[in-house]
Amino acid sequence: MIVLTRQHRYRARSVLGAWILFGAASTAAYADTQTLAPLQPPPSELYGDLFVAVQTAQIFPDQKTFVDSTPKMAPAQIVQLYEQQKLAPNFSLKAFVNQYFTPPANQTLREHIDWLWPQLTRTTTTAPPYSSLIPMPKPYVVPGGRFREGYYWDTYFTMLGLQEAGREDLVDNMLDNFAYLIDTIGHIPNGNRTYYVSRSQPPFFSYMVELAARKEGGRVYQKYLPQLRREHAYWMQGADSLQPGGAVRNVVMMPDRTVLNRYWDASDTPRDESYLEDVQTAAMVPGRPKNEVYRDLRAAAESGWDFSSRWFGDNQTLTSIRTTSIVPVDLNSLMFHLETTIAIACGEARDFRCVGDYIRQAARRAIGINRYLWNENGYYGDYDWKLGQPRNNPSAAMLYPLFANAAWPDRAYKTARTAETVLLKQGGLATTTFNTTQQWDAPNGWAPLHWIAVQSLRRYGRADLAQQIGTRFLSDVNHVYDTEHKLVEKYVVEGAGTGGGGGGEYPLQDGFGWTNGVTLRLLDLYAPGQ
């Protein structure tokens, strides 16, 4: 114990008094030069019922996030807008908060994505009478923005992030939903809307099964074997009746009797969801039957690349679209993976006749890919089966044969070099080399194509290039997140300033399912501490 003498106590009081006098003088001097703004009431008083609604709805997982957020206009105006809008049939409290508040900047990108998963999750086991929505038995994740339903190929890339976030339950749920759609409809539609049933989308179901099997073991292959086989049968309808040079539905027989696939749609009318745009496009092609134009527009929608110079006869204009005349490199690579996956699943089921059948189909397809979908300019690409010639339009789809492990090693090396030379930009990988104002062309880059590129190049010994592509795209995503606090559907990857992408039939959408999923996986690969 320390005992202070009278002298020590006197000195202590003197020092303390001096500090108090100094502090008072400093405060007085500061007050002479500064005028403090009046304190605002706390958020609970500023926002009233809106505050209660946000906090009880758990719009943010941490209750402190909303109260630390910054309003984008005067609180009274926001409250007035809330009172006007809250009873509207389609009112979304989460969307309202995103529109009128900026969350605190210290929320990391990874934390923001974790927060988004519940916001993008839907449960629609029933649908209102006469609704276009197709119910599904289990919860699922939607892309976001105007995309209020589940989409086929988006879901695989969303699953990548869900698995990274430990949401195996949602991965399994969405796999079960797609198995349900195959069993009840006969295929996985473009999305779970009635107007999407006439077509599918790039067949990633086998990749989804593979993703789950890596965590849960070989029993997953056996569980989904019936649906894998039905998926394959859907894409191969009519193949038995083909003659060389002919096509029916999604299949084309090449001159040497190799059967490859194309994108197609069972309907040849304007798309319900883009009716006016399709009517206007067809009206601009007076010398061609409108039903042909409509089917090519729909087939491009099945490709997921709606729209892109890949499908244009002149590489520039939508009115020259000829999707059904093109054998696409991505689709046939995915079909190769589907066939090899079925062979694996048959092996798990001890059905060795089935194993041999699908291995032979996959081998024939690999030969066809390397015969018809190799461009002598040094990359894998699309083939115009009606003109009997390759398409000279390098695109990020060139990496799909590497992704599916269908590429010959020397050609994989050349393709990687072409991608590096022609497509690699400041913010990642450009979609094509043509700037047509369509969204699946330059200068845009897309999360799913970056994941395919990274995995493809890592598989074939170009981890250095994979890292360049992945980290550049992550920088682009981070830039938009830091400036706008959101993840978006597509990004500009070239030019002076990278940011959210443009072009196409609708404004830029945020959310965004597949960007969230790919970003989490790329963070795990290249920035695990972020």
TrEMBL record:
Residues 1-31 form the signal peptide. One of its GO terms (cellular component) is periplasmic space. Keywords: Glycosidase, Hydrolase, Periplasm, Signal. Substrate binds at residues 146, 153-154, 190, 199-201, 304, 505. Its EC number is 3.2.1.28. It catalyses: alpha,alpha-trehalose + H2O = alpha-D-glucose + beta-D-glucose. The keyword Ion transport does not apply. It is found in: Periplasm. GO terms for biological process: cellular hyperosmotic response; trehalose catabolic process. It comes from the Bacteria. One of its GO terms (molecular function) is alpha,alpha-trehalase activity. The active site is at residues 306, 489. NCBIfam families: PRK13270.1 (NF009773), PRK13271.1 (NF009774). Belongs to the glycosyl hydrolase 37 family. PANTHER family: TREHALASE. Provides the cells with the ability to utilize trehalose at high osmolarity by splitting it into glucose molecules that can subsequently be taken up by the phosphotransferase-mediated uptake system. This is Periplasmic trehalase. It comes from Candidatus Burkholderia verschuerenii. The gene is treA.
